[in-house]
Structures are given as C-alpha cells and as structure tokens.
Design the sequence.
C-alpha cells in the first residue's frame, strides 16, 4: 500500500510507527455520526485505532503492532477517510 493514496492531512511517523489525522466537523451530531461509523468499521475489520475527541473534532491514531506500517494500517486510514463521503 502506498502512502500516495492517503490524503495529505494524514501524518506518518516511523518511530513509533503510526498514522494520525484530525477530523473537524461543523457540529457535535456530525462528529458523533463519524465516531459511530468508525466504530462500525473497526468492528468489521477487527482493528481499533486510538481516538481522542472534542465536541467537533476527532483525532485518529492508527498504530502498528510491528516495527513498521503495513497494508492493514494504510487501508484502515483510507477506509476511515472514506467515511466522510458517506
């Protein structure tokens, strides 16, 4: 999986290996809908990112269980981003 497919808003860190992004929303309801969709995605693919959120912002951190980022992490980032267009 190439990093070229990720929106430039994602930040990639090699040590520790993770991908992070902040998502901004107009309202709490929009933010909550995104969190619900992200929870459904997590259950579907059996991957659970670290989340921090405020009333209208969600910070997503996708960490690798190994020493490097792999297809699983990049694919999850793409799928999380795709939730915005649903």
Sequence:
């Amino acid at each position: 999986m190439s990093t070229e497919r990720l929106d430039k808003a994602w930040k990639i860190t090699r040590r520790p290996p993770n991908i992070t992004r902040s998502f901004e929303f107009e309202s709490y309801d929009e933010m909550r809908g995104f969190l619900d969709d992200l929870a459904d995605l997590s259950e579907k693919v059996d991957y659970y990112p670290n989340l921090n959120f405020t009333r209208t912002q969600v910070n997503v951190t996708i960490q690798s269980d190994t020493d490097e980022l792999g297809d699983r992490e990049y694919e999850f980032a793409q799928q999380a981003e795709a939730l915005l267009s649903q």
Observations:
- The two ends are 23 Å apart (CA to CA).
- The chain has a mean pLDDT of 92.
- The first helix runs from residue 28 to 45.
